[in-house]
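hi! just following up on the protien thing from before. the input was this:
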Amino acid sequence: MQAGHILPMPAHRAAGSSASAIGAAIDVGSNSVHCLVARVVSGRLHPLIDRSDLLGLGDVVDRDQVLPPASVDALIGSLTAFTGLAAEAGAARLVVLGTEPLRRATNRDAVASAVEAATRQQMVILSHQEEAYLTLLGVAAEVDAAGSLLVVDVGGGSSEYLVTVPSGLPTAAALSTGSMRLTRHFVAHDPPLRSEYELMLGEARRLVRETQAADPDAAVFVGGTASNLLKVGERPPSNRRLDAGRLSEALTVLLAEPAARAATRHAIHERRARLLPGGIAIVQAFMERYGLPDVLVSEASLRDGAILALHRAGAAWRMRLPELVSGEAAWSVG
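and the predicted 3d structure came back as:
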């Protein structure tokens, strides 16, 4: 595996200053390009910048199998803006990560070359396992935890998951679907019909049945689907947990009002509102599969994990990722 490219220290910052504790990570996902810049203090992140552009690259790759020039231009524009923000914030290290749409695009090498030529940043295209490992690193920094933990990142084109074990490496894999892909295949109405949701749930259950057998003590869900579900409902959430009742309440709302109205009422992006029923289907299928009464929603992400990996291992972070996550394999949710 190649090491991730490191953003040079800005000339106006001296090595050994507080800037050396600031890192940045940008990930290119199926729904969005997301940038996190954060200061690392005692192994925990203090966000300075947390922004995203919803480009919908996963839809484009599903349709065309490639990222066409217009999409590449939009991607480069987003990455150029975000790398500039990271530099201005004093980031000593930055990594650009490609996830599901880049794994599937047949022209990914050409896209990566175009990104590097325009931004002077190498785009590291992660495997499903690497993506899950980085997510675990991010969650471990946020959640006080003994026992086995299920971590799930519901994406747009795929959903990475892993299960920690008492010692050694956690086992990681991916579901070949996400909220965007389910919606594109099964939903033709806005808002979705109940029958369309049932089709999505059936497909999610079918795929989740193939996941590894495990008896986790708790589960943490990350990503935009999980965090936005907390916003949907008739009353503010009292905690960051999703159970069957809260999923049902959110689904009832999303099946009753068009995405534009849901976006306005619940302060979420309209595109995200259209995809949330598909996300609910995946969350519900995982909860049923593993007998979970509820799950914790974490704001942590693979971006958090990437910044921590850079902080701990520098340019060698990718080679040392198994070593880094093996130290996080025995903890539980408090």
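Confidence is low (pLDDT under 50) at residues 1-20, 329-334.
The first helix runs from residue 57 to 64.
cheers
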